[in-house]
Design a protein that fits this description.
GO terms for molecular function: acireductone synthase activity. The chain is an alpha/beta fold. Helices cover 43% and strands 15% of the residues. The chain has helices at 21-33, 36-42, 47-60, 67-79, 85-101, 112-121, 134-142, 168-178, 192-200, and strands at residues 3-7, 9-12, 125-129, 153-157, 185-189, 204-208, 224-226, 232-236. Bound molecules: ligand L4RZE5RM and magnesium ion.
Length: 239
Amino acid sequence: MTLRHTVDAVVLDIEGTTSATGFVVDVLYPYARSRFAALLSERSGDPEVARAVAQVREAIGEPGADAVRVEKALNAWLDEDRKATPLKTLQGVIWSEGFARGDLVSHFYDDVVPELRTWHSSGVRLHVYSSGSVAAQRAWFTNSPEGDLTSLLSGFYDTENAGPKQEAESYRRISGSTGIEPAKLLFLSDRPGELDAARAAGWHAVGIRRPGEPYFEQGVGDHAAAGTFDEITVSRSTS
Ligand SMILES: CSCCC(=O)C(=O)COP(=O)(O)O
Ligand SMILES: [Mg+2]
């Protein structure tokens, strides 16, 4: 079945939607895990690192936590795939450097990039909204197996600049930032709580259900669902 949406922009979740959770967990997480200790000891003076470390200490309720304790908290969050903003900031620092160095190449499901190109060429704007930091998102789309895809994208949103993905207010913030009214925005995600929040903000929302992904069995509640991007036809609204 084809789902049809007439909108000005599509906003993309990454993990579970454009790309495999398994790749993130099996390739990116170990890459970050093995580099947290060095980042915390050698770069604690970098403003971005210092801010994230302060946020970790606050989240665990230990204002005096040393680097070993902070690393332990980060690894525990990694184990449970917790979408904690300071974890995502520090991962983003490590990953963006790993992508730039050529250690990492991102992953996209086969159906994704052709549809992104089709939607973009029909005048539909494409944005990303992921728990991964903006730095990580940029590196992800820059270093894809099909080369640099960032020319397809008009904006990047994460939990730092937009807010939590399961809160409607975050989607209102993105709508305000893009200048696109809610009814002309379509969000694609694998997580029902995120789809609920987007819909509550007046957006169109489609659940992406891919076999093997963590939310596949649970489903996407009462949201329209697609198994692949080519089941979705997106046209640019004329008004
Ligand atoms: C390029 S970001 C890497 C994936 C990641 O760490 C993440 O948390 C993605 O979560 P999403 O909100 O896209 O499901
Ligand atoms: Mg996701």
